[in-house]
C-alpha cells in the first residue's frame, strides 16, 4: 500500500522496474528457503483471458447423465453455488486490487476476475432452464445469495485494521475454495466415463470450459493470498471454514435436488451413492477427495504442482462454447 | 430398569429432534440460514432482453428503397410487450446485429413490424435485410428495448427525417389516442421515398402534420417549427445526423429534446472525442476518438476494476452521474443502462460524461 496511487501518469511509467525487482526478490527468497515456502512450477503459468461463451440449454434434459439422477444432481449443485459464489469472488477481488504491488500478479488477477464473472453468468443461465424442467432452484439459491451477499458481504467496519482483516479473511477463503475448484476442474477434464455414459454435450462443455479455466488460473487466488497476507494460521483457519461450508452446502444441495425432482418418487441422496458414483468414475472418487485435504495444508503447497495447464489450454482451444464466437482476449496493459 | 428407561427416552428425543430438523430443511433447504429477500441468482436471463426466433410472414415496400417486415412468433405465445420508441436487435443470418425501431401497434402482441431503408454504401446490415429476409425466413430477435421512450408532456413536437419516421409512427398514434397536443415535421428526399406518408395523413387533422419533400420544397424549416413550439414541449427527433444537429442547435430554452440515432455507434462530439469528469477524484480526463474511457481513467484511478475490455464480463461497470451514454455492450439491462455503463467499450453521445469515480 501507499505506493502513490491516485498519482501521476509519469510516476506509473517508472513503476514496472521496481516491481520486477520485488518479484526477483520474492523468487530468490523462495529459492533459498526451499522446503518451507510454496514451490511454484513456472512452466504451468499461462496468460489469462476471459472468453466470451454462449450455451443453448433448450436441448438439455433434466437428467443429463442418462439414467443417473444422483450424479446429475450432485454436479448440478454447482449451478446453485457458483452464480452467487463467483459473483462474490469478483466483488472481493475488485476491492483487493489496490493492495497488489506486483504488475504480473495484478494482470493475473484482472484476467481471473473476468473469467470468474463469465463463469457466474454461464451457470446463472442454467437456473431458468432447471425451473422450466419443473425443478425450481430458487428456495436454495435465495439462501446461497444471502450467504454470499450478507454473511460474507461487506460489513460496516471502521476503516483500517478491522476492514483489512475482513478483506484478507475473504481473500484466504477464496484461495481455499479455488483449491477445490481446480481439483474439480482437473477431474472433469479427465472424466471420460461421463462421455461413455452419453452425458449431454452442452452441459459437459460448460463443465469442461469452466473446469479448464479453473485449472488455467488455479495459482492466482493462492498467489494473491500469499502476496497480500500469506499467514499460515489464516490459511488453515479459512481452509477449515471453506471445507466445512462446501461439505454442508453440497450435501444439502444434492438432497434438495433429489427430493424435489418431479420425476422421482422417493429421491434420496446418501453418502453411499457418492461412494458408488465415485467408483464408477462419474463423480470424483471419495479417496481422491480425502487425499486433496492435506495437500492444501502442506507448507510447500503451490497450486501449480497439481493438474496440467497444457491439457486445459488444449481443451479451451477446441471447446464449442469458447470457440463458437470470437474468443476475446484480455490485453492487460 | 432405570437405565433402559433413560435409553428409550434419549432415543425418543433424538428421533423427534431429527424429524423436526428434517421438516425444517424440507421447507428451507439451507436451514438455519435465512434467504435473501430479493434473490439475485437465476434472474439474470429474465432481466436481460431475451432472444426470440421469429418468422418473416410479410414483406411489403411502403416507399422506394424501403422494405417493411412483418415478424411473427413460431408458436402462439405472446411476443414481449413494448412501448412507442422501442427497438429490437435483429441478428442477421451472417451474425451481424442491427437495431430497428418497431413501427407497428404495441397492442398487437402477435406481430412485430419494422421497416428498413437500403443504404447502398452502408455497413451491410440493410443490404442483408433487403436481399435475404424474405417471407418464410427465420430470424433471431433480441429485445425489445426502449431508449427513446415517450414521456408525459403538455405538448409534443416530432421531427422525423426519412426512415427516422419508424420510431415516431407509434408515438403519433399514441399521442393521438391520448388526445395530446402534438405536431409532426416530416422531411425526406422525395414523396415517393418517404414511408407511411399516406398512413399519417389518415391518422390526424392536416394542420398537425407538415410534410416537406426536398425535391419539391427544400429542407424542412426546423428553426421555425421549434420557435413555434410552446414552452414545455417535448421534442422528439429521429433522422440523419445533420437533421438532429440542426434540431439540437435551434432548440429554444424550456423545451426538452429526445434524440434517437440510426446507428448506435454514431460519432460523439466533434470527432468522437469527449471529456470524462471523475466526480469523486475531482479530475477531468479526455477520451480520444480512438481510445476508451477505461484507458483514459486508469492513470487517474489505478485501482479501477476491469477485465475483458470487450464489454461482456461486466467488471468495469461504473455509475454515470451526468451525460448521455452511448452503450456499446450487450450485457447490461435497461435499468442498469439508465445510470451506469461499461467503461471499456461504451462512449458518450455528447462531449461530456460525469462518472462516480
Number of domains of chain A: 1
Tally of contiguous helical segments of chain B: 10
Strand order of the largest sheet of chain B: 4-3-6-1-2-5
Mean pLDDT of chain B: 86
Radius of gyration of chain A: 20 Å
Q: Please, how many helices of chain A?
A: 14
Q: What series of H and E elements makes up the topology of chain B?
A: HHEEEEEHEEHEHEHHEHEEEHEEHEEE
Helix content percent band of chain B: 25-40%
Q: Give the helix/strand class of chain A.
A: mainly alpha
Order of helices and strands of chain A: HHHHHHHHHHHHHH
State the end-to-end CA separation of chain A: 21 Å
Largest beta-sheet details of chain A: none
Q: So, the CATH homologous superfamily of the largest domain in chain B?
A: Nucleotide-binding domain of ferredoxin-NADP reductase (FNR) module
Q: What's the helical proportion of residues of chain A? A: 55-70%
What does this structure look like?
The complex is a heterodimer of chains A (333) and B (357). Chain A has 333 residues and is an all-alpha fold. Helices cover 66% and strands 0% of the residues of chain A. Chain A has a single domain (9-324), classed as Ribonucleotide Reductase, subunit A (Orthogonal Bundle). With 357 residues, chain B is an alpha/beta fold. In chain B, β8 (181-188), α5 and β9 form a beta-alpha-beta unit. In chain B, α7 (222-228) packs across α8. The A-B interface holds A 5-9, 12, 49-50, 52, 80, 83-84, 87, 90, 93-94, 97-98, 110-111, 113-115, 117-118, 121, 124-125, 127-128, 131, 137-147, 149-151, 249, 252-253, 255-256, 259, 328, 330-331, 333 and B 25-26, 28-30, 33-36, 39-42, 44-46, 281, 298-303, 305-310, 312-315.
Amino acid at each position: 500500500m501507499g505506493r502513490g496511487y491516485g498519482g501521476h501518469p509519469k510516476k506509473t511509467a517508472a513503476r514496472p522496474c521496481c516491481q520486477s525487482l520485488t518479484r526477483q526478490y520474492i523468487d530468490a527468497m523462495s529459492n533459498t528457503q526451499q522446503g518451507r515456502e510454496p514451490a511454484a512450477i513456472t512452466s504451468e503459468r499461462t496468460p489469462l483471458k476471459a472468453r466470451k461463451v454462449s450455451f443453448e440449454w433448450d436441448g438439455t434434459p433434466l437428467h443429463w447423465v442418462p439414467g443417473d439422477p444422483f450424479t446429475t444432481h450432485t454436479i448440478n449443485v454447482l449451478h446453485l453455488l457458483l452464480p452467487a459464489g463467483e459473483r462474490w469472488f469478483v466483488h472481493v477481488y475488485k476491492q483487493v486490487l489496490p493492495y497488489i504491488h506486483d504488475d504480473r500478479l495484478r494482470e493475473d488477477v484482472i484476467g481471473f476476475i473476468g473469467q470468474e464473472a463469465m463463469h457466474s453468468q454461464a451457470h446463472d443461465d442454467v437456473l431458468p432452464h432447471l425451473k422450466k424442467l419443473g425443478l425450481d432452484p430458487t428456495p436454495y439459491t435465495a439462501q446461497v445469495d444471502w450467504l454470499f451477499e450478507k454473511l460474507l458481504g461487506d460489513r460496516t467496519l471502521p476503516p483500517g485494521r478491522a476492514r483489512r482483516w475482513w478483506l484478507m479473511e475473504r481473500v484466504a477463503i477464496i484461495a481455499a475454495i479455488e483449491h477445490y475448484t481446480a481439483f474439480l476442474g482437473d477431474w472433469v477434464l479427465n472424466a471420460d466415463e461421463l462421455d461413455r455414459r452419453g452425458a449431454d454435450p452442452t452441459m459437459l462443455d460448460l463443465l469442461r470450459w469452466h473446469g479448464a479455466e479453473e485449472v488455467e488460473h488455479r495459482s492466482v487466488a493462492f498467489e494473491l493470498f500469499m502476496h497480500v497476507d500469506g499467514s499460515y494460521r489464516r490459511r488453515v483457519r479459512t481452509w477449515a471454514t471453506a471445507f466445512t461450508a462446501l461439505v454442508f452446502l453440497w450435501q444439502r444441495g444434492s438432497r434438495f435436488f433429489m427430493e424435489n425432482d418431479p420425476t422421482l418418487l422417493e429421491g434420496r441422496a446418501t453418502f453411499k451413492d457418492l461412494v458408488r458414483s465415485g467408483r464408477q468414475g462419474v463423480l470424483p472418487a471419495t479417496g481422491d477427495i480425502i487425499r486433496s485435504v492435506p495437500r492444501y495444508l502442506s507448507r510447500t503447497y503451490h497450486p501449480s504442482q497439481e493438474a496440467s495447464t497444457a491439457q486445459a489450454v488444449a481443451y479451451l482451444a477446441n471447446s464449442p462454447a469458447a470457440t463458437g464466437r470470437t474468443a476475446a482476449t484480455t490485453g492487460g496493459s | 430398569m432405570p437405565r433402559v428407561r433413560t435409553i428409550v427416552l434419549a432415543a425418543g428425543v433424538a428421533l423427534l429432534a431429527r424429524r423436526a430438523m428434517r421438516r425444517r430443511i424440507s421447507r428451507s433447504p439451507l436451514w438455519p440460514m435465512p434467504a435473501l429477500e430479493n434473490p439475485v441468482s437465476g434472474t439474470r436471463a429474465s432481466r436481460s432482453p431475451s432472444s426470440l426466433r421469429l418468422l418473416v410472414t410479410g414483406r411489403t415496400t411502403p416507399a422506394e428503397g424501403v422494405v417493411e417486415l412483418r415478424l411473427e412468433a413460431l408458436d402462439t405465445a405472446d411476443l414481449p410487450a413494448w412501448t412507442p420508441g422501442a427497438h429490437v436487435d435483429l441478428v442477421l443470418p451472417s451474425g451481424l446485429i442491427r437495431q430497428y425501431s418497431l413501427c407497428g401497434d404495441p397492442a398487437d402482441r402477435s406481430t412485430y413490424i419494422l421497416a428498413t431503408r437500403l443504404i447502398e454504401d452502408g455497413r451491410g446490415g440493410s443490404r442483408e435485410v433487403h436481399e435475404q429476409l424474405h417471407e418464410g425466413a427465420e430470424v433471431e430477435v433480441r429485445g425489445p428495448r426502449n431508449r427513446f421512450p415517450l414521456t408525459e408532456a403538455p405538448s409534443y413536437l416530432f421531427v422525423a427525417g426519412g426512415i427516422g419516421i419508424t420510431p415516431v409512427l407509434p408515438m403519433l398514434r399514441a399521442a393521438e389516442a391520448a388526445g395530446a397536443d402534438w405536431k409532426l415535421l416530416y422531411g425526406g428526399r422525395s414523396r415517393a421515398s418517404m414511408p407511411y406518408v399516406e398512413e399519417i395523413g389518415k391518422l390526424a387533422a392536416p394542420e398537425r402534420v407538415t410534410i416537406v419533400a426536398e425535391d419539391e420544397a427544400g429542407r424542412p424549416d426546423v428553426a421555425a417549427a421549434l420557435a413555434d413550439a410552446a414552452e414545455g414541449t417535448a421534442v422528439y427527433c429521429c433522422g440523419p445526423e445533420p437533421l438532429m444537429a440542426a434540431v439540437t442547435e435551434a432548440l429554444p430554452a424550456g423545451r426538452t429534446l429526445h434524440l434517437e440515432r440510426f446507428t448506435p455507434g454514431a460519432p460523439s462530439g466533434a470527432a468522437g472525442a469527449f471529456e470524462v469528469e471523475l466526480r469523486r477524484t475531482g479530475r477531468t480526463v479526455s477520451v480520444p476518438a480512438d481510445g476508451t474511457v477505461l484507458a483514459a481513467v486508469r492513470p487517474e484511478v489505478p485501482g479501477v476494476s476491469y477485465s475483458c475490455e470487450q464489454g461482456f464480463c461486466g467488471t468495469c461497470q461504473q455509475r454515470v452521474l451526468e451525460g448521455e451514454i452511448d452503450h456499446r455492450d450487450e450485457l447490461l439491462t435497461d435499468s442498469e443502462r439508465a445510470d451506469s455503463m461499461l467503461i471499456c467499450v461504451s462512449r458518450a453521445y455528447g462531449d461530456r460524461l460525469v462518472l462516480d469515480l
